[in-house]
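Re: zinc ion structure - here you go.
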Amino acid sequence: MHELSLAQSLVEQLLVLAAEQRATRVVRIRVRIEPLAGVVTDSFSFGFEAVKTISAVTRDAILELDCPPASYRCLACGRLSEHPLPPEIPCPGCGAKNRQLPTGGDQLLLLQVELEEQETDNGKTEPQPREVNSHV
Ligand SMILES: [Zn+2]
């Protein structure tokens, strides 16, 4: 269960972040799963939903996934396309067949975390979106 351990390290990272920011709750997070990360998104979401219940801080966190598609590079001429070409279709750039390799990032990135802070002096608590860009 690769996805479950990723979800575990994500929740651990959120707890550290929340503690650093003196936040009481993680409201929402945005995670990018790059196309070659080898992560099954459904399993990852499922794992996160299970693991987040270990702490009241993360229990209600909403997970948003950002999953950009892979692009395909022709090994012969370097042409990039967004979708894989069926094997019988030659590369529009050079006519080579079966020379395409998927390209794209292979990381799982925590893009944004929205935290609910402890009550401030004026008694207001507002979720603060934070830009975070770190590997999980
Ligand atoms: Zn080509």
